[in-house]
Amino acid sequence: MDCWSPLLDVDDEYEKLVIRMNPPRVTVDNTSSRKATLVKVDSANKHGSLLEVVQVLTDLNLTINKAYISSDGEWFMDVFHVVDQDGNKLSDGEVIDRIQKSLGTRRTLRGSVGVEPTSQHTSIELIGRDRPGLLSEVFAVLASLKCNVVAAEVWTHNSRMASVVYITDDSSGSPIDDPDRLAQIKQLLRHVLKGTAVSAGVTHAERRLHQMMYADRDYDRDGGCVGETFVTVENCVDKGYSVVNVRCKDRPKLLFDTVCTLTDMKYVVFHAAVISEGLEAYQEYYIRHLDGCPVSSESERQRVIHCLEAAIRRRNSEGLRLELCGQDRVGLLSDVTRIFRENGLSVTQAEVTTRGSQAVNVFYVTDASGNAVKSETIEAVRGEIGQTVLRVKDEAAGYGLNSPPPPPQEGGGFSLGSLFRTRSEKFLYNLGLIRSCS
Asked: Measured between alpha carbons, how far is residue 221 from residues 159, 224, 300, 304, 305 in Å?
């Protein structure tokens, strides 16, 4: 089969012209479904268009329960069934207006990395081998260098740690742009990370975390078992697609994580269907590589499977959830993570935000061996930090991440074709462009 790709025949300037002449059409429909708000997007197509749309919806803290995607040639049509954080249809006019404005004026996702302080903060990217107490040491170094952490996102997976940290000068509250000071920060953080990468960047934080973990090859197996996630890749020869099926426990931002990974691996999603059923999520993608070819070898097939499994697991919240809410101050994170370390706690994931003068931080912790934390240890930590400041909220069990779904049926993989047909979800098949490869 000859490989082809219409996307490669369109240069960047022509893409920009097409998009200006055909701006995205965005419709927010609150009447067609009883359970969800439908967001419909029609737009000129380019590589990364789907990710841009999913990123906007995810950043608005919306949950995507279903999605139907079709994008052959130079145009794509997407339908997303979304609900708010409480599982309700959208009723906030401001949120609806933000959806229409954001999707109607999308810009190309930034992918460059370099020293570029914004008008509000300086961002630092960290990647290295994970170990107990690492986050505590990072925040201690920043505090000692008079840096105030205003926000941070930390992921750990497969013995790696990746983080995007946003800092300002602790006295002026301004971004740090002095080259000598930035060089000192990088030097000391490299020492803490034992020589691994430290850089400053401007990419969307969560996408950048995926890119950093991927570049660090966290998808390589180290004997671990992926029990709660099933991914298959098969070729649909007559149509020239590779069909990717994903079945796993549902959770927020799952669609973003899988689409982000496929996009950064240079695959184009031509058609897709996504559905959440209870605690489980099912995703089916019809893809080709940017060069127009489907997956062409067993090694490439395994790589796609392992990378998607890793992307799903990176954000899985392992451990006990601790929420810290209180008055923000310089050195707060250094002190809190030091107390964690001194009590034998290891941070597996963290999200640090500042709202006005308040620190609103979330940590997922285990003991140093990765096991559940004893209640007496948590009470000791809360006693040092403050009972009203640090609260326990273990919602990992709520997402069912500790118990895998039943294994797929005999015969290897599975297909979503029968699932959609039995539920009258025939979107992909009615297009006449594809058919089930089961």
From this structure: 11, 6, 15, 13, 12
pTM above 0.90, yes or no: no
How far is it, in rounded angstroms, from Cα 367 to Cα 381? Answer: 13
Question: Has residue 313 got a pLDDT over 80?
Answer: yes
Of the candidates 75, 57, 59, the residue with the CA atom closest to the CA atom of residue 67:
57
Contact 79, 428 (CB under 8 A): no
Q: pLDDT (tens digit, 9 = 90+) per residue, 177-203?
A: 899 999 999 999 999 988 666 666 666
Query: CB of 70 within 8 A of CB of 270?
Result: yes
Under 8 Å between Cβ of 352 and 152: yes
> How far is it, in rounded angstroms, from Cα 167 to Cα 335?
17
Q: Which of 13-27, 103-117, 299-313, 346-360 has the lowest mean pLDDT?
A: 103-117
Dihedral of the alpha carbons of 340, 341, 345, 350, in degrees to the nearest 10: 60
What does the DSSP 8-state code read for residue 8? G
Q: Is 248 left (phi over 0), alpha (psi -120 to 50) or beta?
A: beta
Q: Return the closest-CA partner of residue 241 out of 5, 14, 79.
A: 5
145-167 burial: b if 16+ Cβ within 10 Å, else e: bbbbbbbbbbbbbbebbbbbbbb
pLDDT in tens, 320-335: 999 999 999 889 999 9
Reading the block at residue 3, the tokens are: 């490989």
What is the rounded average pLDDT for all residues in the chain? Answer: 82
Q: Distance between CA 102 and CA 57 in Å, rounded?
A: 9
| Element housing 99 (H / E) | helix 93-104
Q: Is the pLDDT of residue 262 over 80?
A: yes
